Amino acid sequence: MCIKLVESCLAKRLTLAVAESCTGGWLGKEITAIPGASAVFKGGVICYADEVKRDLLGVPEPVLQSDGAVSATCAEYMAQGARSLFKSDLALAITGIAGPGGATGLKPVGLVYICVATAERLLCQRALFKGDRESVRQQAVAAAVAMLLKVI
After folding, report:
1. Is the pLDDT assigned to residue 62 strictly greater than 90?
2. Which of 5, 25, 58, 151 has the largest count of CB atoms under 10 Å?
3. pTM, two decimal places
C-alpha cells in the first residue's frame, strides 16, 4: 500500500510527514522502503514520550492531562504539529496502546487514533485492533496508509 501512497503523492505533487507514537517509526520505515519516496516524504517524529508530543509537536499540556496521549485530540495536534514542523502538504499521526500493558478501563489494548492533516482539514479515526503488540502496530500502520489514500 505504501507504493500506491508514494505514487499518489508523486502524481499530485504532495509532500508528506508523520508523527508516530505507538508504531515507533514503523510507518516511516514502510514509506522510506519505497524507491523514490524521498521526493514526497519529508520526515517524521517518533514521539513516544508526552514531553516530545508537547515540546516538539505542540500538543498542549491540558490536552495531555485531560484527554490523554491516546485520544483524538492528541492525534489531531500531533498531525498538525508534524505538518507544520516539516512544512508538508499532508501529515499522518498515530497514537495508541499497543500492549500488552498500558490499558485502562476506558482505553483498552489495541485502541489507536489516526489523524490526517491537510491545509483544509483534519480527519481523525478511532480504531480498536485485536492481537499482540506487533499485530496492533502493523494494523495501525496499514489503517493509516489506507486512510491517507482515501484523502488524497
Report:
1. yes
2. 5
3. 0.97
